[in-house]
Amino acid sequence: MRSRHVMFGLSLLFGVGTTACSATVTGTAGFAPVTVTVVSTVTVPQPALEGRKVFVPAAVERGIVRILTEEYKISGVGPVTCPEGQEVAPDNSFFCTVRVDGKQKFVKVVVKSSEGEYEVGQPSER
Known about the structure:
The chain is mainly beta.
């Protein structure tokens, strides 16, 4: 079993700044991993939720595209859309939609820590 650690940066378009993400990929040679864990500090406080942090959807979407194309080696990855207001809380999970070769698929995102670590699953029919 192989484990690999990948670092990449994301820049937010609305001036929050540059933030770093890391991905831990576990799998065997020749096979795509089942999930990739990403550490994201791309979160914003949500005033309406009294200090709780939520993910910035656009940043998570860019991270998912990068994971699908670079780590899972999936070609034909199109736009990703994630829901807004997803809390940065362990065990929270949500689905993002993605186009793969023109077909709509779903990617499950599972939050692993309150620091913004989350897993990205393989695209599926749901």
